[in-house]
Amino acid sequence: MGDKTLTDIACTVRMIRDKAIAVADGTMEQHEGREREKFYWLPKSMIEVDPDDYDVGDAVTGTMPEWKAMDVGLI
Asked: Which of the four pLDDT bands, split at 50, 70 and 90, describes residue 3?
């Protein structure tokens, strides 16, 4: 993808792994007959998080390529 347009997403950190983080934007989804918070896995190499000393549960702003945000369903 050659598009270099960036977008900011207000989200909450839900899980942190070595190479990726899971974030939630407040949307809900149906899963196994019940409603739950929807979360999105993003590679750390593709997202810049402010503040950069985030932890699980923190509200952050994630800056990422617009195409990636669209690809995972954040926009």
From this structure: confident
